[in-house]
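<instruction>
Derive structure tokens from the sequence

<record> Sequence and structure tokens follow
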Amino acid sequence: MALLQFTDNGLYCPDGDFYIDPWKPVNKAVITHAHSDHARAGSTAYLCHRLTKPLLELRLGAHAYQEVEWNEPVFINGVRISLHPAGHVIGSSQIQLEKEGEVWVVSGDYKTEDDGVSGAFEPVRCNSFITESTFGLPIYNWQPQAVQYAQIGEWILQNQQQGYSSVLLAYSLGKAQRVLQAAAMVTDHIFLHGAVANTNDVLVNAGITLPFAKRVTASVTKDELKKAVVIAPSSVLDSPWLKRFTPYRVAICSGWMQVRGNKRRQNADAGFAISDHADWNGLLQAVKATGAEQVYVTHGFQSAFSRYLQEQGIQAAEVVTQYGEAFETDDVPSSTQEQQP
């Protein structure tokens, strides 16, 4: 019997009787990170990284949470579990399972460039590797983060010179913290949507150092918002909430902006191809570094990526999961008072 099985509830370890990132409520869930497609409410108990726990509490509310550090082993029914940095977002982890010499690793979501805040991706040797493939096509090739940050900074400064505020749309956990770092390199006049501010508050309370930014509330005046940088989730695009920042320009921060057509199809002035997922080369490097004899490819371009791995002599198979279905949605609570136009 394999150490992990693909079931209707998610990735199941029969020996340990637990699931990894289940999409239905189960008795024991091991969580890679706090994004909504990988961490869902309703399970009896959760095991996660120390920095993921407060984020789960923010999103899912009170549950039985067990927190561990990276590389800290936990044993469940004879199965050795350890979490290793995935580099995706703060607290994100790969899950390593080991029993009787058989080793599996579940990547969760990951990126291989160290962003300076999410933890550097750590390749983990294994027999079987379950990898995401969100951007598993050769057209996705990210520029270095330093270049991306410089582009964002130049855009902000140009907008300020022309009298515009700069609205940067980014997921409240992950990209928002990176975009904040980029903006803080050129200005300290930064405001946050409530969903981003609440996430940042949790992270700061957990010991993460982030640049200072103000929360957008009903009491913030129009004069205060002139030529400001505003970081918000993509759900505010075309909403009445944006009117208070007029005149403003909007930029979408997403790996999908690598393809120019995506920018044209949305009501935005700019797009920055900044992603919390590995690009094509990053995915290949990660897979090869594991030395895995068997690779299972999940959400994204899993058919194309698994086929390419097979052509390279790597035994690979495509697996259909529910991960990625909540991509670019944002369910972090935000203050109701700030939603008024």
